Amino acid sequence: DLHYAPSIAAQGLRRGFSNVIGLIVRDIADHYFGEIARGVTERAMQLGYLSFVCNTGRNRENEMHYHELLWQHRVKGIILAGGGIDTPEYQRILARQLHRCEQYGLRLVGLGPQGRRIPEVTVDYVRVAGIITGRLLEAGHRDIAFITGDRRVFTARDHIAGYQAILEAHGLRFDERLVLYGDFTEQEGYERCRELLARGPRFTAICAGSDTIAMGVLHALSESGRRVPDDVSVIGVGDIPPARYMAPPLTTLRIPRYEMGVRAVEIITGEAPPPQRPVVLATELVERRSVRQL
Length: 294
What we know:
Blueprint: H1 7-15, E1 20-25, H2 31-46, E2 50-55, H3 60-72, E3 77-80, H4 88-104, E4 107-110, E5 121-122, H5 125-138, E6 144-148, H6 154-169, E7 179-181, H7 186-199, E8 205-208, H8 211-223, E9 233-238, E10 251-254, H9 257-269, E11 279-280, E12 284-286
Parallel strand pairs: 1-2, 1-3, 3-4, 5-11, 6-7, 6-8, 8-9, 9-10
Antiparallel strand pairs: 10-12
């Protein structure tokens, strides 16, 4: 029942929204989300708001629970730091929150595609994948693998759409054996790279859907005796602080994570008008030493 509201929320309806902004992140220990959280908390404080950072631990049940807790405590708005998930449960909670936006004025901002029309401050993840794949194509690579997140996450789907589009634009065949889905973690990067090596298709380069995936990829390649970039080139997404200290330093695409957090807060607080279409921020390719010219 979309009209159900626990007593805390009912009391809040009478007194209006609090000066609190909720931020839901999948893993606060991940540098990617940490920089978003810094942007949210610092800008919120400047504007006189308090931030609740809700760490789901990549547990979808926790994510659903946080949505309800934040609503009960009458937060001004909720920022969704991760890409949306194409599951009935996730889409139901978004539908419920959108109803609350329309009925009561709750504000919702996504920092990635959510599968529904909500205000977004984001980057073009299809283009992101096209840029990093294109960088490897420019370096002479033709057999390029792509390791990304869960196939139910819209961000991961955008990655593969962008990867496939640029390969086909260069007259190259899309080979599903070179695409691996997992999660945006170092462990999954390691496991999926090992799986790729075991599968046996030829590849000279790997696109990682995040720098944390790339960290795991580098470890798996090193463990297998393959040198980066001499044997395999690797490129990431994010430009998290450890990227420059990886061995070798990682070539990656910088995502303006701090600015994403700042802009989301400004939309929720009314400092910026609600966007009629997604606010798409610019990215920047950061060249280091993990890509070899063939």
